[in-house]
Amino acid sequence: MSKTPFEKLVHERRSVRRFLDKPVPTEVVTACLEAARLAPSATNVQPWRFLVIDDPKVKDDFAREVFSGIYSQTKFAARAPVLVFLLARPTFVAGQIGRQVQGVAFHLIDLGIAGEHFVLAAQERGLGTCWIGWFNMRRARRFFKIPRAYKPAAIIALGYYERTEPREKKRKPLSEIAWHNSFPG
Question: Whole-model pTM?
């Protein structure tokens, strides 16, 4: 059976760590942000906020701050033409009560859904992305003077990359991760 366009998109999407020195048009970034904006969220609170960093000087200064020291293994992201800093603005219900009653930080799930909408929209437009969680969150907050009501969550590196033949993804087989009607015993 042939793959649907969505299945092909998901199959081809991968984390990119080498970007071409080619700017990403603002309208393309905006289209990806629009895809993220349309994501679902717990009780429709839409806790996501996106800080787009595409000015080369600001991006370089920011990268020097957040990808240094123990975070230097992610400094490759500084070479991406665009960094998208994901922040959460959790509400009391989704942020506090959900975590206390259910033990789940729903705002982070919501951010993951919106961020994945963003990266899939980028892939569809021929751009590469890489989710980054390993960065100095305190310095990132300080760099942009972000108030405490906003929680730094991730950075997405975005840019064009040299297209190569997609390699096979190393993933566990479905039989190890999905079950029907009962938990394997």
Answer: 0.92
